[in-house]
Inverse folding.
């Protein structure tokens, strides 16, 4: 027997009490925003600390091993970026669902499964089901290439966050886009090709200064993105 329209709307509507529950959850989410950024900064610090290992190996004449440390830093760096993007996207989508920040057009077309809808109807007092759905939907995606980052930022913000972050970096949009994609390409060559061109045995050259520049760029980019998102949130 089909449920009537009136009964369906009654079941899915939030009562005043449940709305208050969701608002209390958002207080926790605001604390989590700082946790997301703190985790990113911790990851960056950990990556930088590996320079000490590089220096020791290099000074002891183990150049190949030292360079492999640099390569690992690039992989860890882009993983830190990817993890930050996944976490901040989930955080922002939950805030939109709770009505604490304004929804984007992309949010309105975010797809959830019928199984998730059933879970939501059974548990109106929590939004854990949505958090799990976001993780599932994005589990096969990476947010390291500039195009992917721009797209996912448009999902969680009404502003042109990527362009504004580039401006804050005092870098041309096209220059920053290319630089980020160059780092991502290098990361893929290291992770999937042992940092070698196709059909060649010799690895690409790498130096400490290059990796330091990569780390500085990604760190500052994420810092500006986070600041811009929090500023937007404070206005909602």
């Amino acid at each position: 027997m089909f449920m009537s329209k009136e009964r369906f709307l009654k079941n899915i509507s939030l009562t005043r009490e449940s709305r208050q529950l969701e608002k209390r959850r958002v207080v926790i989410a605001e604390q989590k925003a700082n946790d997301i950024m703190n985790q990113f900064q911790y990851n960056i610090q950990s990556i930088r600390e590996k320079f000490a290992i590089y220096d020791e190996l290099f000074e002891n004449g183990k150049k190949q091993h030292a360079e492999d440390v640099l390569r690992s830093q690039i992989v860890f760096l882009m993983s830190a970026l990817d993890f930050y993007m996944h976490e901040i996207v989930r955080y922002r989508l939950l805030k939109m669902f709770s009505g604490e920040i304004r929804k984007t057009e992309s949010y309105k077309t975010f797809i959830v499964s019928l199984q998730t809808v059933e879970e939501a109807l059974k548990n109106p007092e929590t939004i854990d089901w949505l958090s799990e759905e976001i993780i599932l939907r994005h589990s096969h995606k990476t947010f390291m290439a500039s195009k992917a980052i721009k797209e996912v930022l448009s999902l969680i913000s009404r502003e042109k966050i990527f362009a504004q972050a580039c401006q804050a970096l005092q870098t041309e949009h096209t220059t920053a886009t290319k630089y980020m994609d160059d780092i991502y390409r290098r990361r893929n060559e290291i992770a999937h090709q042992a940092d070698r061109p196709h059909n060649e045995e010799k690895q690409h050259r790498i130096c400490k200064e290059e990796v330091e520049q990569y780390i500085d760029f990604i760190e500052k980019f994420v810092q500006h993105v986070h600041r811009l998102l929090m500023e937007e949130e404070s206005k909602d």
The radius of gyration is 22 Å. Residues 12-29 have pLDDT under 50 and may be disordered.
